[in-house]
Amino acid sequence: MNRSRRTVWSWAFYDWANSAFATVVLAGFFPLLFQDFWNAGAPAEIANLRLGWANAAASLVLVLSAPLLGALADAAGAHKRILFLFAVPGMAATAALTIVPEGAWLTASLLFVCASLGFLGANLLYDALLVQVAPPARWHSVSGLGFGLGYLGGGLLYLVCVAAALRPELFGLSDSTEAALGAFTLTAIWWAVFSLPLLLFVPEPGRLRETAGGSLWRDSIGQVWQTLRRLRHHRTIAVFLLAYWLYIDGVGTVIRMAVAYGRALGFERSNLILALLLVQFVGFPAAIAFGHLGERIGPRRGIYLGLAVYLLVCIWGTFIRSPWEFFTIAVLIGLVQGGVQSLSRSFYARLIPAGRSGEFFGFYNLMGKFAALIGPPLFGLFGTWFGIRYSMLALIVLFVAGGLLLSRVREHD
Fold this sequence. Notes:
MFS transporter, mainly alpha, Growth Hormone, Chain: A, single chain, transmembrane, 79% helix, transmembrane helix
């Protein structure tokens, strides 16, 4: 394997590594245990609302720091170092969830916030490295490769964890709860081991822009302030970020709240676990295919296709009654979820100024995480105000408004 291919695959394998957290923890076992174990005895609506606020808390911290971290990484040439500065504590907090006792929802929430912050902060720097590991003509396909490997890697680990939860005696465990708790430690180990290719084989890009002198922190803060003041001159970027903020809010809320939603509707834990497995294994080839589709029809049309499917999911999800419907919706989400994410990342990479990827991907992640600050609590509030089934309807306006704004994005200023 030549050096450029090794760099691309090593970069993409970080998605394989950290998607274990996204799948096993964020979307899978944490929502189930948070409702059934750490919130034992609490109404489902209250548990969902607490989960929404826990997601929002991690997002708020990153919202406040993302552009500065990106600018600092550009100025210092420290994308990988800052990535692991977030990832390692995130791994530790993930492993610590294993020992949180029953009923301790506040402790579980605090550790979840720390783990999520590590995951999200590291992703900021990982996304920014895309423009360094491949030429522009390959950004759509390379971005799709990353998401595809992420779905496969996360799905494989989740499959092992599901097997342990369904048949704990075969793994020497006492019950499914012990297996689910042990999944957090296994996720932390997986995340750490498969991060090594990025650490070893993806070169630090060095300083992507020169500082004006003085301390890196002062220069980075000044650069962020200048970017904020000049963002009105980058109209294409500003409009895209607003569109992305809206529609990725809906995507992220589905990822974070779908299992809790299904549990609140009374579906069996085993059905919810299997549905998430379907999302992962359908998502693996679909995300890669969407990357190539973006090169053929353009990323905007590919994103529109995904948003149309999400609108169908929101409407259908409000009325589901049977497990087969939940499984069908899981397949639909798997077909488009990774595509919307990967094409958004590569589309944005084509819009930003050269040499400032970390800083501008800081704003990209800011909008994505600011969406998570609003979406899950709104989902939970709709459930408490109107009934749990109407939670899904809160997301329709986000997909529609985001799609309309996306139509106003010009690929060249």
